[in-house]
Amino acid sequence: MCLASREARVGDTMSSASGVNNGDGKEAALFEQRLSKIGEVRAALGQLSGKAALYCSDASIARYLVARNWEVKKATKMLKKTLKWRSEYKPDEIRWDEIANEAATGKIYRTDYFDKSGRSILVMRPGVQNTKKAKGQIRYLVYCMENAILNLPHDQSQMVWLIDFAGFSLSNISLHVTKLTADVLQGHYPERLGVAILYNAPKFFESFWKIASPILEPKTFNKVKFVYPDRPETNKIMEDLFNMEELESAFGGKNQATFNINDYAARMREDDIKMPLFWSPENTALASEPYVMVNKDMAQEGSSGLKSEETASEKREETDTESENREETESESERAEIDSVSGKREETVAVSDKREEKETESENGKAAVTSSNGVELTSLPGEGKGITPAD
Which portions of the sequence form the region Disordered (predicted)? Predict the structure, then answer.
């Protein structure tokens, strides 16, 4: 599709879908400026084909620009990394039978209902982690995210993470897996997370939070909210986001349904059939998804926090290679740091961790998993605005 026709098509959405008032010169000018930057990124990417061309819609490119504060060079660099990752990792080709063992306990699953904004919901329960290898855990997370995106309504682009800390213990903590999770979410799915709810996190999680929160970029950090059932002010977050009749009782809702692996497997196999169709060349809706400017874009534009956010993004880019090639010694030092803060890690766990790290290193030639029991991907930390962990 040529740039002129694309801009004409997207321009038609300015007064309706985007909420941009054609009579407001400032907003209209900003919208056109951003369209121009989307075009610059597209030009810098060069000729694309196949799934890469489908992936790089205007809306998709805009998500990378938002993640890099609308700086074309940085967004282009970030997007190129994702295209390379997708061509090698092939996230859209992961199928249920490949990761079914990871899903057995319901540690991550997509609900059959949406939040009030129409966003897909991923429930995450790190307390029922059932595997030890970081590679399999990350692959299952990627599968779930691709599935959540597949099931988004046509007018929605983000998902919600609902993280339930029931049964969560110190053995479920791993800074290494948290870093891998953050790398995937922030590096390859920018602006896909709408909000993450950390529900009833235990007291000891506070120590891990202090260490792990710097991993998150400011945009991600600000999307995470702590909610506690005994705090009315945090429960209001749930009421504002969800239909309480649909929300599961574990999160304070009225839905008594529980996770059933057989029912969920059937749903996922149905979605596995849809996925190739979603990524087929005939899916012009995917390739032509327009950029839509919403009101929050305007609010963020003049934010005083952009400079610090940009600095954090630059720092992250500089350390990408180091993160990808993390060595065993780093994992051990991270574990030691967590232990010194919590003061509760048993020596037997550390010994088992070291053995697990060596096994993984010999198999993959990469940094090892740091937890003997494996760690749910959803121990990803975050902090809600104005909300602090339980005293």
Answer: 1-21, 299-391
